[in-house]
Structures are given as C-alpha cells and as structure tokens.
Amino acid sequence: MSAGGGTIIDGKAIAERCKERIRAQVAQLPMPPGITVVLVGDDPASKVYVSMKEVGCRDVGMRSEQVTLPKDVSQERLLATIDRLNEDPEVHAILVQLPLPGHIDEGAVLERVRPEKDVDGFHPCNVGLLQLGKATLVPCTPKGVVRLLEESGVAIAGAHAVIVGRSNIVGKPLAQLLLQRDATVTVCHSRTKGLAALTRQADILVAAVGRPGLITAEMVKDGAVVIDVGVNRVEDAHEKRGYRLCGDVDFARVREKARAITPVPGGVGPMTIAMLMENTLLAAQAQQQARGRAQRGGAR
Ligand code: GUN
Questions:
Q1: Out of 35, 42, 159, 165, which could bridge 93 as a Cys pair, Cβ 3.0 to 4.6 Å?
Q2: 126 C-beta closer than 6 A to ligand 1
Q3: What Cα–Cα distance (Å) separates residue 293 from each residue in 30, 286, 299?
C-alpha cells in the first residue's frame, strides 16, 4: 500500500495492453472485423459512449459504422435494421446501445441480434451459455472487471466477492464469471437488508448501481479490493462542461482502507471498450472460420 492508501488500478494502461494484443490478432485476419453500433435517439451520454466505442475499434484496425435512428423510430424499423445487419457478411458484430426509448421492447430487440454477432452477450442464447460456463461472447463490462482483477494479480479463487447491483448488464453476469473462477459470491441490491454488514465481508467489492457516494469507508474491510463500475455525472460549476464524472464509491476515503481500488474515470470504463474490441475480434474469427469451412465443404 502506498502512503496515500491502496494502489490505484490503472484501467487505461491495462486496456492499452489488451488493445495491443487485439491489434496484432486483427492484422492476421483475411478481412478486418466489422462492427455496427445502433444508436436510437440523441441521449448525450449514449452518444459519447458510442463514439468512444467507434474510435476504439478503428484504433485497432477494425471497421466501425454507426446507424442512428430517431428516438420515435418504430419497433418494426429497428428490427428491420437489425435483420439487415444480421444478413450482411461484412458486419461481424452488432451492438444496440441501451437504454432504448420506452416504447421499444428491449427484450425483442436484443433477441433479434444473431447470437454469433451479439458482442454485448445479451441474447438469451449467450446468457444461457454464460450460465453453463460455455459462452464465447460475454458482456463487456463484467468481462473487463474480471480482466482487471486478473491483470492486477488479485486472487479470485476462494475470495468473498460482494457485488452491489443486480443488472443484466453487470451484476448478474459478473456473479457468474466470478463463480466460475471459484469466488464465493454475494449479490446485493436495493432490497438487501444490512448492506454494510455484507459489504464489510468482501475481499473483492464491486459497486455497480449508479449512485454517487453509495459505498463509504465504513462499508469496506481493511485490505479489500474495490472495483467501481458506476459512472455518474454530478453538477460541478468549476468544470467547463458543467459536470464531472464520479463512481459509486467515496474514492478518497475508501482508498485509505483498500488494498487496491479503481478510479472513475480511468478504471472499468476503458476496459469495457477493450473487451468490446476483443468480443468483436472473437466474433469475426468465428464467422470467418465458419465461412471458410462452408466454402471448402461446398467445393467438394
Ligand atoms: N448501455 C450501458 N452499458 C451498455 C453496454 O454494455 N452495452 C450496451 N449495448 N448498452 C449499454
């Protein structure tokens, strides 16, 4: 532990190392992997995330396109867009940015994306495969959390991991990934009684709720590893854009007790994007191999 408290886990640096490996593998493929991101509406935060994903993918040699649809788009038109992308052999990866407007049936949209192009890992087939420990395409944020722990040398097997938040995007898939690595996992949520008594038992504490200041120093055991998945915009007149980003954890005070902690920004965020690139690479490799097999089979 350094003088100011626990080590800061540098997600940006770890993501850069992941990207180097991905870039090298992309260069080996006969065709560059292609991803299309579908953005419905003009939510400012979603626009920022989508452009970060696009820039990141291009940076490692992938083709990246965006389809933008108006916020009042019909469900039929959105599903028809996904059908077109499903059929396009140059699109290996499809990501529909969430949240979607209220009139759209999110489940129907996520089910429409072909499982082999579903780089979010949100299709029911991929969710089921994750449950069985057989998934290739695993949701990017929890995959990034696990990679951060592994690359930082944190022992997962036998650790008590406490996850605060039970979303389909982070909490639930992360519980599966940690269980597969032999952690003892507790998942807490808004109806959990005695939250602090549970978080204080954590060797690995993950906050994924979206509430600034949720995790205070009193809720953390000495020597815990703390992973902050929250990305919250809080008003700040000193900032040029009028807000600053913070996580769910009271970073300065919790750092005093933690063995290691991720910052916001610069912790989990860059890893989510790196894992999206990795999933896009995996999807492209699998599709290009399948196409090669089909062509060889057809030539016989
Ligand atoms: N919105 C917030 N996180 C995510 C994510 O991981 N994938 C998608 N598609 N939308 C999101």
A1: 35
A2: no
A3: 14, 11, 10
